Amino acid sequence: MRSERPLGSYGVDAPWVPWMWIGYAILYTCLAIASVVLWSAWRPITVLLCVVALASALGAALFWYASLRGKFILWEQILRSANVCDRRNALDLGCGHGMVAIMTARRAPAMTVVGIDLWRSVDQSGNTPEAAQANARMNGVDDRVRFDTGDMTALPYESNSFDLITASLAIHNIPSREGRRDAINEAVRVLSDGGTILIADIRRTKQYAQDLRAAGLHVTTQPLGWRGWWSGPWMATTSLSAVKPPAPKRTRLSA
Question: pLDDT tens for residues 157-178?
């Protein structure tokens, strides 16, 4: 059976976040030790400080797991459930190191896949098109996967160009509501009739669903469980599947 995680290096998402949690864990551990030294005994405040330190360490561990392992398992499930094998071409928005683009290409041997990104290291460590292409080459799909530089709010592709569009933990990085709506509308524009949009994200998924429904797509959502907990259940991953209706059939008028 094919492994969920493709070969290669895929960086760490938002790499500053787990180190922030580690910093909190160290800080509250030091405060707990200081309280014991100061009062020469355990007190409720000491116990509270220890609990916060443990919770911070757990937050870092959950984040690293979701980034380095959990999201691969979740996307394997998403792609399997969506039955993407019969699609011809796909676009991965905010592709990063190419994880979803590569997993999609491996699952559908006849498919061509395009990944697009602004390649910001704040979003994913070591984020470059060269790193993504190296991963594609390592998995033997570099002849069917290419990576472009561009903004998902203004895609450089013609309308109705792709029958599958994916976005993994990418759209929430757009800071404004208008920008996120533009990204959704651009995805709908380049999606062919009858095509599918698959999104997995940690915030604002209700907004995405609202915008996709407003564009006329049929949308279903699903929480993805603890493997997609980025530091805890308050930052859980939700998946969206949106299908664009087929173009209406033209009826031939009789003479």
Answer: 999 999 999 999 999 999 999 9
